[in-house]
Structures are given as C-alpha cells and as structure tokens.
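Provenance

Sequences were taken from public entries as deposited. Structures were produced by running a predictor on each sequence independently, with no templates supplied. The record for GMP synthase [glutamine-hydrolyzing] from Telmatocola sphagniphila is shown for reference.
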Amino acid sequence: PILIFDFGSQFAQLIARRVRELNVFCQLVRHDLPAARVRELNPKGLIFSGGPASVYEKSAPKCDPKIYDLGIPILGICYGMHLVSHDLGAKVDPAHSREFGRAILHVHSATGFLEGLPDKSTVWMSHGDQVNQSSNDFEMLASTDTCPWAAVRHKTRPIYGIQFHPEVNHTEQGRLILKNFLMNICGCHALWKMQTFIDRTISEIREKVGNNRVICGLSGGVDSSVVAALLLKAIGPQAACIFVDNGLLRMGEADAVRKMFSEWYKADLHMVDAEKRFLDALKDVSDPQLKRKTIGYHFIEVFKQEARSIPNAKFLAQGTLYPDVIESGGAVDGPAATIKTHHNVGGLPKELGFELIEPLRDLFKDEVRRLGVELGLPEELVWRHPFPGPGLAVRCLGNITKDRLEILRKADKIFLQELKESGWYKKTSQAFVVLLPVQSVGVMGDGRTYENAVALRAVQTDDFMTADWSHLPHDFLAKISTRIINEVRGVNRVVYDISSKPPATIEWE
Ligand code: XMP
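Predicted structure for GMP synthase [glutamine-hydrolyzing]:
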C-alpha cells in the first residue's frame, strides 16, 4: 500500500481518496508511526500530509527520523515538505504573510515526478511557512512567483516535496502529479479494483464465519444494503437480515426492502413491524433529542429481541465506513480521533455479544457506491440520499401522530418524485419535506382554510458538515408547491428553506 502520514491536515482524507481513485490502495496512519512498523507494513511509498503547525514550534508533529533511511519514496505536501526539508538540512522560513489561493506553477523539469506537466499550470496554495533556501541536497523542480522552491527533489534519496496541494481540484495537474509519484517513483500498479476487493472480501467472510450465522441489520440505505449484498454473495442462507419498520419511514420504503431482499435476493429477511411500539413511545414527545433517545432505545430493544430468535448467530455485520473508523480513532495504525459530533442512533451496542464483521471499513462512500454497482444493486438504491436513523420523527416537527406522518409522507413523495424526474435528485445531496407545527390561513374555492404548512429542504454538500441550500429553479418549485397543495389534504402552504449550514443544520430538528 501507500501510507499517508496525517500531520493534522484538513485534506488528509482527500489525499487518500485521490490515491484510491488512481486504483492504488492506501491507508491513513499516525504521523509518528515507528519506522519498524512502517517496514512491517511494507509500503511502496509514503505521503506526508500538510498540517497547521510550523516545523519550528516545540509541539510540531514529527515523524520517526529513521523512516528516511528505509529507502521508501516519500512525497511531502506543504507541512510535509517543510518537515522533510527541515529534517534533511534545508531551511524553512516563517512567511511574513499567509499565502492562500491560486498561483501559477512554472515547471523547470518535466520528467519523472513532473512528467507531462505543461510549462505553466494553476496550483492551489494554503500555507504560512515556506522553503526559501534549500540545501545543496535538494534540486528545484518548479517555482511560483512568490515561492521558488514549490516542487523539489532530493538529489540522492527518493524524496520529493511540493508546497501546493495536489489533492484539491483547484490544482489543475494535481492528479497527474500524484499519479507520477505513485507510478513513476513508487512503482505502483493500478491494481486496487473493485472486483479484486469483492473476491478478497468474500473469501475473508467465508473463512471467518465458518458454519455460523451472521445477522445483518438493514436500514434501506446504501451502506447496509451493500453489506447485505456482499454477505448474501459470500454465505447465502447463513445470513439473516433484520429490518425494523419503526413507522417513521418514507412512503413505500419497507416494501422496497422486502421486494429487493426477500423476493429478489431470496434472503432470510426478518421484517419487524414495530410501528405501534414506536408511535406509542413517541406520544407527546416533541423535544428533538428526546425523540432521538427514545427511538434509539427502542430500536436496540426490538433488534435484540429479533436477533435472539435466530439460532447459531455468532456475528453481526455492520456498514462501518473508513471515515467512521478514522474519526473514531479506531484504525490500528491510524491517526488519533478527530472531533466530530455525530448523532447517529443506528449503532448497536457491544452488549449484544456478537463478533463484528465490517466489510466496508476500508472504503470511502464513493467506493461503497462503486461496489454497490459492481454487486448489481439498482442505481436508484446506490445513489440514494442519506436518511437519518430517527427518520421522519425529526421531520415531523412537534408532536408525532400517524395522521401527521401520513401528510408528511405524501408531500415528501411528491417532492422526491419531481426531483428524480427533473434530474435534480442527482444534483442535490439531500432533499426532503418538513412538516411544520404551524397552521396558516388559506382560501380554497369559496372557503377559508386553516391548515398545515410544509417546508421543502434541498442542500448540496460534500461531507454534510457544511452545506449550501440548492438553488432550485422557481418554476420547478412552483410546480412542486402546486402539486403538494392540490394533492395532499391538510396542506395549504409550502415554503422553501434558503438557509445554509452553518449556521442552520440540514435537518430542522
Ligand atoms: P444536520 O441536521 O446535523 O445533519 O446538519 C447532518 C447529516 O446527518 C443526518 N442526521 C442524522 N443521521 N441520525 C442519523 O443517522 C440522526 O439522529 C441524525 N440527525 C441528522 C442528516 O440527515 C444529514 O445527512
């Protein structure tokens, strides 16, 4: 593999994704991974990420200096470049001002590391320090107007540095530079392919499971569906899928899961109809966090009960993804946990007593989607927007009743249908209807009405941590509004949410 040393860059995961896109397997590791461990992992190359520190700070993150003697190619990016330069005798200067944004890179030597690059191209900078005077051991490969040592090579060791960020899209030749490093310098081959991953994962699952049974919780979303599809391919009838219908799903959702897994895949599917239990428990609950807690608690109880009815079940399969593993600090050699408050209620506690199977724990979301396609899951499922664990409960503001949920479902169905037909579904990251706890006056025919208002929410985002509201065309919004008011009894007003995150959140509760 390629190991990416995380020096605290906001872009470390992005570097990993870019490397994977070039079909080379890579892992994010702690910046202080000992050289002995690096040797054991036998990587073809190392990438040192950027980071917010300055190499002269006392607390600046360092790598084990013995790594430089392993003979493994290293690419230092931004802070990573400062570190290798500093450690190998060059001088890094604190810049007088931070450089942030685009710059023009002039290439002096378009071979090897910079093979195929034009004389001039745009790169993206984000740094304070820079190398102003390198040592005799380094050769200058490219410069910008303000940064002479923008790309360097060590004269005797396979060590490279770049001041700009090749992983962001604003760096025009970023992918080519990474590719050159991987293929020309490290001698990697583009072998990380989905089919290889599937074959390897299937045999690993078979070996681990033996004759036991595996329980797989289905949510209707992409991740759990891909896990189920993999399991069914690997061990067929030894897999038991549990789907809890909590009465808070969108229209047709439970049926779609039944159709796909029971009829199509012939899976051993345990559908638990727990609508009454959940709605009873949520009666008179209007506080959002209490809704989440209540739903989380009952989900675990219902799941546990159903799991007990499956004999010889020793394993539980979960759709944990690589970013979850990294962010929880759960990667064996990976970086420490980063702060991320996530309110996922889908997690099942350890007390269930199962051994875990997490076949997606090395994958990013876009890779899970590619895997889904490769496994033959329908497009519609593979490209589904995320749906929160507490479901419509957090979109039915205030009190939850069966009637109010039904109004919400009908309106939401119209919105989703129109988004899909117009092609906007793929251009948005998440879109849904919220039923407001507001009644407003309207006129219909000759009569005065006093009915519900709903809000439409549509956002675009890469990581769901920040998001922009989607600029849906007015005509399109008008059509949806007309349809909802005409077709959904109980709604006489539709509004469009034009708040971005932050300061608003994507959900209303
Ligand atoms: P917010 O509203 O915090 O949402 O901007 C960010 C993303 O997280 C989803 N979300 C949840 N997912 N359980 C979940 O599994 C929850 O309680 C929950 N709350 C929000 C939300 O749909 C969006 O994708």
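Residues 340-346 have pLDDT under 50 and may be disordered.
The two ends are 42 Å apart (CA to CA).
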